[in-house]
Amino acid sequence: MNILIVDDDVELVGLLRFALSGAGYSVVTAFDGEQALARLADALPDLVILDVNLPLMDGFSVLEELRKTSQVPVMMLTVRAAEEDEVRGLDLGADDYLRKPFSPRALLARIRSLLRRGTEAVEDNVLSLGRLSLDLERSEARVADGGSFRLSPLELRLLRLLLSQRGRPVDADRLIEFVWADREAADRESLKQVVHRLRRKLERAGGAATWIEYVPNAGYAFAS
Fold it and tell me: In sequence order, which residues have a C-beta less than 8 Å from that of residue 218 and are 6 or more positions away?
């Protein structure tokens, strides 16, 4: 899982990076609002930890821009105690609000909770995009006006990540890390093999192999 930390406190960012890396998360950092939006586009994080008080753009403005294109879980950090600030953040689309100072254990517990919520299916564990729907609980995919097919664990994780990005390309290295968990267990050739098997299953079910599109220098995208 990839987490973006956005805070201008360099020391705090270092502590958070250490705690999150130790818990098994990949970490990307940004130190101002504009840099945060650029990192969002590049890193495609699974969760964002966003400070309210930032240079160039405050956290509320970053959140507002982020919500125009993404539903990634966002945890706001603040030293502010005013209830109005918390309400504003939640109204803009924040998923949680944590006041400084906080313990690493409390932060990790909140992160685990948000990530669990983020992977829960919106409709009975089903993700849909275009003509394809993916049943996470049954490990099964269905093509509208076509057939259904079972998925291996690797195929399920690959398709789940592609569908969750709503047609945006996902970097091959990130796909490998998500699909195999252990980065040393696979390489790009392994990824190509799983993509090939998925494309064949899509075709047999009445879909198209081209739904899983290779985007040069960007990775793979689901383009149904």
Answer: 169, 171
Domains located in the chain, CATH noted: 2-119 (3.40.50.2300), 126-222 (1.10.10.10)
DSSP tag of 170: B
Say which residues have a Cβ less than 8 Å from residue 27's Cβ, sequence separation at least 6: 2, 3, 4, 5, 16, 17, 20, 21
d(CA 3, CA 47): 5
Q: Omega of the bond prior to 153 within 30 degrees of 0, cis?
A: no
3-class secondary-structure state, position 48:
strand
- Nearest CA among 28, 27, 78, 86 for reference residue 52: 78
For 16-38, how does the pLDDT look when each residue is reduced to its tens digit (9 = 90+)? 999 999 898 989 999 999 999 99
Residue 193 CA to chain centroid, in angstroms?
23
The pLDDT of residue 79:
79
Whether 72 and 48 have beta carbons less than 8 Å apart is answered as: yes
